[in-house]
Structure formats: C-alpha cells, structure tokens
Amino acid sequence: MVTEVPAFWRTKPLDEMSPSEWESLCDGCGRCCLHKLEDIDSGLYFYTNVACRLLDSETCRCTNYLQRMALVKDCIQISPADSEQFNWLPTTCAYRRVVEGRGLEWWHPLISGDRNTVHEARISVRGRIVDENTVSADQLEDHIISWVDF
CA-CA-CA-CA torsion for 27, 28, 29, 35, nearest 10 degrees? Predict the structure, then answer.
C-alpha cells in the first residue's frame, strides 16, 4: 500500500528542511557506510563490500549514530551544506537524487510507507557486506563490487 506523504523534498531546498525531514530522506540502504576507493586521476569512486564496523548488517543502520563521528575518524556527516559534493554517494541515494532533481524511487520509505522496501528491492547492503575488521586496507581493491549503481 502506498502512503500519501507531503512531498517536502520536491518543494523545499535542502537547507530549509527540518532536521526530521532531512533524516527521513535516508532510505536506510547502508551504501554510504561502505568503504570506497577513489581513482585520483578520474575522480571515480569504487565501492567495496567492506562496511564500517558500526553498520548493523541486518538493519543497515548505524549502531551508534549519535556518537559515530567520535568513534569513526573518517565518518562523513552528510549535510545540506555539502550538497555540491554528493557525487561520492551512489546514484540511488535520496540525498543525491534530490540534489540532482530526480525525486525518490518507489522503494524509498517516504514513497512506499514501508522501511523494508529498500531491502526487498535489493538496494540495501543487507546480506552483502563484510566487516571492516576482517579486511586490511591493502585488501580493499579485492573487495570492489559492481552491485552499487553509480
């Protein structure tokens, strides 16, 4: 069943969204918590299946969201002020989609009314990741994946 929700993401600039509106844009896929490699020459990002140690592999949510910045030195807080630099986010990410004027997909919880559709659509990382504690930095290239749409 599709839930009717006011489409604030269509009418409000990112920097005018309330904190709860901003947070609700996150679809809970967990893709932003994957380790990425950047090709310095091309500027392209390559995602790996290696996830931050704080990412819950079942829920695809951070296990310590409020303290993540203190616990993970390279954790990046996504904010409206950084919207011009969202190119490192996957093309499926709602934050990037809104910035690019593409709207939200059917599986996004704000559209579907169900937090599980992101998993049912296989957009989330559920069941497809390894913990960062099991992979060394020099092994990251061996874990580059192709299932993240860019």
Answer: 120
Q: Is residue 3 included in any domain, yes or no?
A: no
Residue 150 lies in a domain: no
Q: What is the pLDDT of residues 81-104, one digit of tens each?
A: 888 889 889 999 999 999 999 999
What's the CA gap between 129 and 43, in Å, rounded? Answer: 24
For 27, counting Cβ atoms within 10 Å of its Cβ (0-12 exposed, 13-18 middle, 19+ buried), the class is buried
User: Is-contact 64 54, C-beta < 8 A?
Assistant: yes
- Confirm whether 67 is domain-assigned: yes
Secondary structure of residue 38 in the 3-state scheme: strand
Percent of all residues in the chain with a pLDDT value above 70, rounded to a whole number: 94
As given in the structure block, the two tokens for residue 32 are 């932003």
Q: Where are the alpha helices (DSSP H) in 48-123?
A: 68-71, 94-99, 109-112, 117-120
For 36-80, what is each residue's pLDDT tens digit?
Answer: 999 999 988 999 999 999 999 999 999 999 999 999 998 988 999
Give how many domains the chain has, as a whole number: 1
Question: Is 2 within the bounds of a domain?
Answer: no
Domain that holds residue 64: 8-143
pTM over 0.90: no
